[in-house]
Amino acid sequence: MPGNSENDPRVYLAAERTLLAWIRTGLAMMGLNLSAAIQHVHFLRELRQGAWDVNRPARSAMIVALALALVGLGVAIYLLTVR
């Protein structure tokens, strides 16, 4: 490979991939923080109305955990079949 990396398109494309990864991560974080804010508002409303049930499971946490487990399983299956 020539010594001049400024003209190598792979350097530009790598920088673009890094930027897109940061954007994707930021959007995911904003989505989770928005979900947490909505859940907090619902929780405060239940406390004010006296309808809070201490034994009720945290559905949103279970949904996120299940979704992440399914994504992880999908990635594992993909990696095992592609190799």
Write structural notes for this entry:
By secondary structure, this protein is an all-alpha fold. The protein has 2 domains: 1-52; 55-83. 78% of the residues lie in helices and 0% in strands. It contains 2 helices and no strands. The longest helix has 41 residues, at 9-49. It is elongated.
- Radius of gyration equals 22 Å
- Given the C-alpha coordinates, what overall shape results? elongated
Structure classification:
mainly alpha
Mean pLDDT across every amino acid position: 86
Q: What's the helix count?
A: 2
Secondary-structure element order, N to C: HH
- Tell me the fraction of residues in β-strands, as a range: under 5%
- State the domain count: 2
Largest beta-sheet details: none
Which stretches of 5+ consecutive residues score pLDDT under 50?
none
Measured distance between first and last alpha carbons: 28 Å
- Please give the number of β-strands: 0
Q: Considering DSSP H and I runs of 4 or more, what fraction of the residues is helical? A: over 70%
What can be said about this structure in brief?
The protein is mostly helical and 83 residues long. It has helices at residues 9-49, 59-82.
Highlighted features:
83 residues, mainly alpha
Summarize the topology:
Layout (H helix, E strand, L loop, with lengths): L8 H41 L9 H24 L1
